Amino acid sequence: MDTLKIADKEFSSRLFTGTGKFSSSDLMRKSLLASESELITVALKRVDVEDDNDNILRHLDHPRINLLPNTSGVRDAKEAVFAAQLAREALETNWIKLEIHPDPKYLLPDPIETLKAAEELVKLGFVVMPYIHADPVLCKRLEEVGTQCVMPLGAPIGSNKGLKTFDFLEIIIDQSNVPVIVDAGIGSPSHAAFAMEIGADAVLVNTAIAVSQEPIAMAEAFRMAVKAGRLAYNAKLAPVKKHAEASSPLTSFLNE
Amino acid sequence: MSSFKDIFDKFDWNDVLSDILQKNEQDVQQALYASKRTIEDFKALISPAAKPYLEQMAQLSYQLTKKRFGNTIQMYAPMYLSNECQNICTYCGFSMTNKIPRRTLTDEEILEEVAYLKSKGYDHILLVTGEANRTVGVSYINNAIQLIQSKFANITIEVQPLDQPDYELLIESGLYAVLVYQETYHKEEYKKHHPKGRKSNFDYRLETPDRLGRAGIHKIGLGALFGLEDWRADSFFTALHLRYLQKTYWKTKYSISFPRLRPHSGGLEPKVEMTDSDLVQLICAFRLLDEDVELSMSTRESEVFRENIVNLGITSISAESKTNPGGYAVEPQSLEQFEISDERSTEEVVTMLRSKGLEVVWKDWAHNWQ
């Protein structure tokens, strides 16, 4: 079976999802179950970790679902480390999606603070999944400090624009020794399939499912697209030919 | 130190207004189809020429809001701590010259009000006072924040403008956001409406968001009080202010509110009327200018208006607000700052939002990692 291993966990689904923007918690649960996603991120700031009956957490209680708390809302490494520790204690997981976006407008990640926080969190025993720009050098630096994967963005978060960072994602995928998960910007199943075809190990999708007219159906569409893209990647795509082959080859004289 | 005043002083109110009024259909279409909109586009969108395009603006605003904020709406509750005030504001029920009983809540009374709001589900709170520096100064506000800090995920204040070190102190205690409305950006009209008290200092108020930005506040709320002057020109300056702040204090989030003059004790009739259609146009124009800015709607507006506006760009609303100190539990009968319009209970508003396909977000912040 073609599973994805991150740290000590094996995933049979390569579609990771998020919990924001759904019109109800019930619809969120149904959609996420339809996606068959096994790793689902939840913003710490949105849940009340002290409340056993928290509306979001309650709806994510399922044997297949692993919770991935994220640090959305923090502005620097110090706050991120603090938030991660809080999450570990309250949600009993040492997995953390590291998101440091000091800019609340475009929610773009701060590479300097992210690297700093990642290094410290790895030392503290966390499985760190950093949300970053599609910056190939930063990915290698994160790998060096011990993050278990990298999560470069395809386009600004929530923009649904697809793989605008395609050229850099290709380099990242080519160079990486840890799984590459394309996060942010994936707006349609075809974007997700494309990311998988070029060799991404997984994708994370939230807005495109939650804001769709029919989130459950869209979750299923993404499930199938990710599967199709991965199958295609494994099967090796036939080469794309830019020109028809010349009928009188230029090197035929060598055989004469 | 540079501030918004440097930019503001370069503009002339009358020039701005005539520019807006001269925008034509072509300017509006240009603004509608632009992928990134400028402040000039904003002028076109709030101009009379944009009226025939209102439905189109509403459709765009709806889509952009869904994309960024999803099918959700945040709920907050205002809590008035005091109606003591040393300012004269011609439009306000708490104005110094109004002969009303004055009250400032004690710690016990604050906790009584808090208990009521918590029982309704609120986790984001807005603390409001008049301006009475001796009794309701920085230390009073700081005490109130510390008192309730563990009970709310998110604390906002709407009080007199303060100095930067004061804001730093309050942030340290758990303050998340500050709302400071300029009331009007028309300097001369501002003087007329604020003849006495510290609030009469237009520039000090104008530079308040700069002091907040320097203090590192998480969120600043801007706005003008519609009715004092022409809403179009005031909204242009609000947008200009927003743009300047976003570029200068880029780690801070921003929200815009749209208060229209409401009846109060000692009332002032609006000088310039703003119709429902104008307000819809303005809300959509702000969303088209900025996909990410939070847009807030209070209970000043009617049931019907609020029911229809929640899908057009608004991202946070209040419900069953009381604008008198102690109004929820301590002394419900005391005099209000202004009459609210939508008097429905929190439960009714939540049911209304759900029926519109909106998930209510009570908590979207945590200050315990700061």
From TrEMBL, chain A:
Task: Indicate the segments forming the Thiazole synthase ThiG domain, all copies.
Answer: 5-249
Q: Which reaction does it catalyse?
A: [ThiS sulfur-carrier protein]-C-terminal-Gly-aminoethanethioate + 2-iminoacetate + 1-deoxy-D-xylulose 5-phosphate = [ThiS sulfur-carrier protein]-C-terminal Gly-Gly + 2-[(2R,5Z)-2-carboxy-4-methylthiazol-5(2H)-ylidene]ethyl phosphate + 2 H2O + H(+)
Q: Has UniProt tagged this entry with the keyword Transferase?
A: yes
**Active site positions:** K97 (schiff-base intermediate with dxp)
EC number(s) per UniProt?
2.8.1.10
Q: Where, in this chain's numbering, is 1-deoxy-D-xylulose 5-phosphate bound? A: G158, A184, G185, N206, T207
Question: Where in the cell?
Answer: Cytoplasm
Q: In which pathway does it act?
A: Cofactor biosynthesis; thiamine diphosphate biosynthesis
Q: Which InterPro entries match?
A: Aldolase_TIM, Thiazole_synthase_ThiG, ThiG
Q: Which UniProt keywords apply?
A: Cytoplasm, Schiff base, Thiamine biosynthesis, Transferase
Main location class = cytoplasm
Q: What does this protein do?
A: Catalyzes the rearrangement of 1-deoxy-D-xylulose 5-phosphate (DXP) to produce the thiazole phosphate moiety of thiamine. Sulfur is provided by the thiocarboxylate moiety of the carrier protein ThiS. In vitro, sulfur can be provided by H(2)S.
What protein family is recorded? Belongs to the ThiG family.
* Subunit organization: Homotetramer. Forms heterodimers with either ThiH or ThiS.
Q: Tell me the protein's name.
A: Thiazole synthase
* UniProt source species: Aquimarina litoralis
TrEMBL record, chain B:
Which co-factors does it depend on? [4Fe-4S] cluster
Tell me which residues make up the Radical SAM core domain: 71-300
Record has Transmembrane as a keyword:
no
Q: Which InterPro entries match?
A: Aldolase_TIM (IPR013785), BATS_dom (IPR010722), rSAM (IPR007197), rSAM_sf (IPR058240), ThiH (IPR012726), ThiH/NoCL/HydG-like (IPR034428)
**Keywords, A to Z?**
4Fe-4S, Iron, Iron-sulfur, Metal-binding, S-adenosyl-L-methionine
Note whether Iron occurs among the keywords. Answer: yes
Annotated SMART domains: BATS
Question: What name is this protein filed under?
Answer: 2-iminoacetate synthase ThiH
Q: Which organism is it from?
A: Aquimarina litoralis
